[in-house]
Amino acid sequence: MKERLAPAPFFVASRPDSAPADHALRIVQALLVDLDGAAAILVASTDGFELAHGGRLRSDPARLAAMASSLAALGDTASRETGIGPPRCLVIESNDGRLVVRGMQLRGKPVIVVVLTSHDLLIGRVWNSLAAAEARLGE
Amino acid sequence: MKEFKIVFTGPPGAGKTTAIAALSDLPPVRTEARNTDATLGPTHITVAMDFGQVDLGRGQRARLFGAPGQARFEFMWRIVAADAAGVVILIDNTRADPLGEFVAYLDAYRDLLPQMTFVAGIVRSDVCRQPTVADYVEQLTARGLAFPVLEVDVRRRDDVQVMVDMLLTKAQSRS
What we know:
The complex is a heterodimer of chains A (139) and B (175).
Chain A: E1 11-13, H1 20-34, E2 38-45, E3 50-55, H2 61-82, E4 90-94, E5 97-106, E6 109-117, H3 123-137
Antiparallel strand pairs in A: 1-3, 2-3, 2-6, 4-5, 5-6
Helix pairs in contact in A: 1-3
Chain B: E1 2-9, H1 16-23, E2 32-34, E3 44-46, E4 50-57, E5 60-66, H2 74-81, E6 86-92, H3 98-108, E7 117-123, H4 133-142, E8 149-152, H5 157-174
Parallel strand pairs in B: 1-5, 1-6, 6-7, 7-8
Antiparallel strand pairs in B: 2-3, 4-5
């Protein structure tokens, strides 16, 4: 993760029978273009199914989708329990990179977007891009 | 206050969340998401864990953790089971292959079976009589295992309490 990774020119949409998959793929494509330096983007359903992913994901996307679902649910529950309102973002800051997890609405369906980046990419830029992507493609 | 950690595991829809809600003294903490898998019955599924707690009296308290049922959340099973005093495996007898699911969970927890106390709760056996408790015990025996297998209604607090009491009695006798 220390090296700056350019997005790989491939995208995979899972569960093609699933209506949100096309929209999820558009989110992945938009974020990979917008976030130059993001290693990978993954969109998952809230119950842990991979909808689409792109970039250089080193882990199994199905497994990461399930983990993203658990993380998002724990974040949501912890936010509610502590009375701080709905969570906007979860960030896992690690030595060699970071994972940003954000829930958003995609055509009226809740999904979870995961951005895997190096530290070169400013966290504020990731937040802004995620918010912009939701505003542009979410409805 | 002496505290014990009890884990509820088992396939989707077996009643883990219901069991914890039935026994917990406090409203349980839930991490549920709307189910998008048409092959499953529940409208919502646990995606991280459930949590509740029950005062057992005599200065003892059990913390109740529920693991997600779907195999894709298998990474959570080990996280949730860490340092547990015992594990309840719940199996829904109305599913297509309850014995196969039981065996799958025995395999998944294979390395914890020698060091932790287990009990199995068979739910909805009043709706579907087969397989019988003896069939489940036979699966255990075939693997050189022995732990209690009970028919339970996880909506009933007393039924869940019996499983937890069995676990703790056995766990305390081991320590």
